[in-house]
């Protein structure tokens, strides 16, 4: 019991002291709130402590080692977004300049809130539902919203793993099936597929062979059976990884968390040896300073911080809840955040090195094609040979020579230049072509790999890396769903986990229709972002403003053995809530100003076209956002008006010796008081909160009646800590 507690301060006093039940229970160790230990034989001291430890060990699984836990957190936080979203945002938002807002927001929002989630999970040892009910019962809906958001993300995230599985198996052939356009033979006539010829081989393979995509979200097109089978395989892998909880997922993390770094290191070495790799890396790190002042850049950086660290999903809390309470979670927060940022930068280096190589290949192709046009114009006397610089050799035409020739022709033929159809073929234009998300992985990167020596090997490695990155994140996402539900409702772990996977597979069929990619865009870009922002800001408010930052810092000091930096106090109390409030407002304004839409692939044009969501899709999108956030106001209203119990009127006693359990639930106020004090209702203080008497060290408490036949049970018992006791 803490030295500054009321009981300890009056330990040597004989005066009669009356304290509230909440005050006394708040000093107990946080054991399972459903259980108390009855010492039938009157055993005390070390035996009771051993019983407490044994009961706690039986009730809560634990990580086998600190390394396993760290790898689990890294596997959850480092995901597919580090490989394709972060590089895309760098490319789109000013290259190296984007790192400035990202680092600032990582320090003032990301790390403090990541530390907060680690701390509350480790201290309370419950999933997200139990944690936020514990911190502030009226905001207990935060935990339910986290579960719903995890479900939404898991539904489409596993579809992406399914895509990676499809490409993984297609990589075991040479040449790679997306390296050339298919040829349609009609008797003796061979014709290149028109859709492929208008676009590119990799683009055609992605949209037509893999997705067989429809022209819009309104055209379902039926199920894509290849992707349906891949989705089934993906959910089977995830189910086997999480069915036993951390006992099974912890072992998977050793491979799924470490293998991607091996592949990234191999790709970095190989990428740096490619011609043009330096061009890509220099392009990435060349900052466009004007972007640093763009509010949209800061909003996207904040969103990336949330997704990168897994804030608000509940997976961080779930993993941390299996830790020992003296674990240094402050060190864990700093370590995992640093590794996450390092991985994003490493992946960006790899991506831009490879894209630099691809840009050089495409630029050379552009030069060759346009040089052939110029030669044709020279032969037909459309252009005079006097326009060609004397040192230009068409047999060995360099990009520099072509640029010089292009400028001369443009200057001389200014009035008719557009009709010539010549392209500038600038390397910077190729590097500036930003490809987002799945397009970066399944189009741009796969096209670059077709030019690698031993391309099937690199393709197999790349997609196996994506599968493992996705699996690590899915394990954390599933933990964000299963852990709080199992903790709260005591459902069988294996049965519930398998049921979740089966349910998610059937709902996930929505995403393997021919229009499924458009629903992935809806869920990824819109349905989770706003609810996550609301969840994270309410988590911060619940701890910093309702529970109390000073109290939370004091309990962190007791748990960790040292006082965290004062920096966290100000971040939790002021800076982080303010920044997140601005972010939430900006997100809402963005949705209102720019109607949500998606990039549709039009088969006839063999090109993408941006379309707005139709009315029914907008209704679905709004419904998803409302469903994800609805538990928060519902639980608040129900508990504010006492329509839903906050758990304070529940007392449970377990009998350790006989392995029996007696629950006394939902007691009336007077009944609970009489049970605790062994008094009649008229003798108990009223109204709530209830009190019990502490008579000093020389007296016998009604709750410690060992050997006293007049005691409630005729034997002594020790009341364990409850979830309402302390954080």
TrEMBL record:
SUPFAM superfamilies for the chain: SNF-like (SSF161070)
Keywords: Glycoprotein, Membrane, Metal-binding, Sodium, Symport, Transmembrane, Transmembrane helix, Transport
UniProt binding sites for Na(+): 75, 78, 82, 340, 469, 473
Subcellular location: Membrane
A Gene Ontology BP annotation from the UniProt entry: sodium ion transmembrane transport
GO annotations of cellular component type: plasma membrane; synaptic vesicle
Topological relation to the membrane, as annotated: Multi-pass membrane protein
Transmembrane segments: 69-87, 99-120, 141-169, 225-246, 258-278, 301-322, 334-355, 457-483, 495-514, 526-547, 567-589, 616-638
Keyword DNA-binding found: no
Keyword Glycoprotein: yes
Pfam families in the cross-refs: SNF (PF00209)
Start and end residues of each stretch annotated as Disordered: 681-727
GO molecular function, one term: symporter activity
Family recorded in the similarity comment: Belongs to the sodium:neurotransmitter symporter (SNF) (TC 2.A.22) family.
Protein name per its UniProtKB record: Transporter
Species whose genome carries this gene: Neomonachus schauinslandi (Hawaiian monk seal)
Gene this chain is encoded by: SLC6A17
């Amino acid at each position: 019991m803490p030295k500054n507690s009321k009981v300890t301060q009056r330990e040597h006093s004989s005066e009669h002291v009356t304290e509230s039940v909440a005050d006394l229970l708040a000093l107990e160790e946080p054991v399972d709130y459903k259980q108390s230990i009855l010492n039938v034989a009157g055993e005390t001291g070390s035996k009771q402590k051993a019983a407490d430890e044994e009961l706690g060990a039986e009730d809560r699984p634990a990580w086998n080692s600190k390394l396993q836990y760290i790898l689990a957190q890294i596997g959850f936080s480092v995901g597919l977004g580090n490989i394709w979203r972060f590089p895309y945002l760098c490319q789109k938002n000013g290259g190296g300049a984007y790192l400035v807002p990202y680092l600032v927001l990582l320090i003032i929002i990301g790390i403090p809130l990541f530390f907060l989630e680690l701390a509350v999970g480790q201290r309370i040892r419950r999933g997200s539902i139990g944690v936020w009910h514990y911190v502030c019962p009226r905001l207990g809906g935060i935990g339910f919203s986290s579960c719903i958001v995890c479900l939404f993300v898991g539904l489409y995230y596993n579809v992406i793993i399914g895509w990676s599985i499809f490409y993984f198996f297609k990589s075991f052939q040479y040449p790679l099936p997306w390296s050339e356009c298919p040829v349609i033979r009609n008797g003796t006539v061979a014709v290149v597929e028109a859709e492929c010829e208008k676009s590119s081989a990799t683009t055609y393979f992605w949209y037509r062979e893999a997705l067989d995509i429809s022209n819009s979200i309104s055209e379902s097109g039926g199920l894509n059976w290849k992707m349906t089978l891949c989705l089934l395989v993906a959910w089977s892998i995830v189910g086997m990884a999480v069915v036993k909880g951390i006992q099974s997922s912890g072992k998977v993390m050793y491979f799924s968390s470490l293998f991607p770094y091996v592949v990234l290191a191999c790709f970095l070495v190989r990428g740096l040896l490619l011609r043009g790799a330096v061009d890509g890396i220099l392009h990435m790190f060349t900052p466009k300073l004007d972007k640093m002042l763009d509010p949209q850049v800061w909003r996207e950086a904040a969103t990336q911080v949330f997704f990168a660290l897994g804030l608000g999903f509940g997976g961080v809390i779930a993993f941390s809840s299996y830790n020992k309470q003296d674990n240094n979670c402050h060190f864990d927060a700093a370590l995992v955040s640093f590794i996450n940022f390092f991985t994003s930068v490493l992946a960006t280096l790899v991506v831009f090195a490879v894209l630099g190589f691809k840009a050089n290949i495409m630029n050379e192709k552009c030069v060759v094609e346009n040089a052939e046009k110029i030669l044709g114009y020279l032969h037909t006397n459309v252009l005079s040979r006097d326009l060609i610089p004397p040192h230009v050799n068409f047999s060995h035409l360099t990009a520099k020579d072509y640029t010089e020739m292009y400028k001369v022709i443009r200057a001389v033929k200014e009035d008719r230049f557009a009709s010539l159809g010549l392209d500038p073929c600038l390397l910077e234009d190729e590097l500036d072509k930003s490809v987002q998300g799945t397009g970066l992985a399944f189009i741009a990167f796969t096209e670059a790999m077709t030019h690698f020596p031993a391309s099937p090997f690199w393709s197999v490695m790349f997609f196996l890396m994506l599968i493992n990155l996705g699996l690590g994140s899915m394990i954390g996402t599933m933990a964000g769903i299963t852990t709080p539900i199992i903790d709260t409702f005591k459902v069988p772990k294996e049965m519930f986990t398998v049921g979740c996977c089966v349910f998610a597979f059937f709902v996930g069929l929505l995403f393997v229709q021919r229009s499924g990619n458009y629903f992935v865009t809806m869920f990824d870009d819109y349905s989770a972002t706003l609810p996550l922002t609301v969840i994270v800001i309410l988590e911060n408010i619940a701890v910093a403003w309702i529970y109390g930052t000073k109290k939370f810092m004091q309990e962190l000091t007791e748990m960790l053995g040292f006082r965290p930096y004062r920096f966290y106090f100000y971040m939790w109390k002021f800076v982080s809530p303010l920044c997140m409030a601005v972010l939430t407002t900006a997100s809402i304004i963005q949705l209102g100003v720019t109607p949500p839409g998606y990039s549709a692939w039009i088969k006839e044009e063999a090109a993408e076209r941006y379309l707005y969501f139709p009315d029914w899709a907008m209704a679905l999108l709004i419904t998803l956002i409302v469903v994800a956030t609805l538990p928060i106001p519902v639980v608040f209203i129900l508990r504010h008006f006492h329509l839903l119990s906050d758990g304070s009127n529940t007392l449970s006693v377990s009998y350790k010796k006989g392995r029996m359990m007696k629950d006394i639930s939902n007691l009336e106020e007077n009944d609970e008081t009489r049970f605790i004090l062994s008094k009649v209702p008229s003798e108990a203080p009223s109204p709530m909160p209830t009190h019990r008497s502490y008579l000093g060290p020389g007296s016998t408490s009604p709750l410690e009646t060992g050997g006293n036949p007049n005691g409630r049970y005729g034997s002594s018992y020790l009341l364990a800590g409850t979830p309402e006791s302390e954080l």
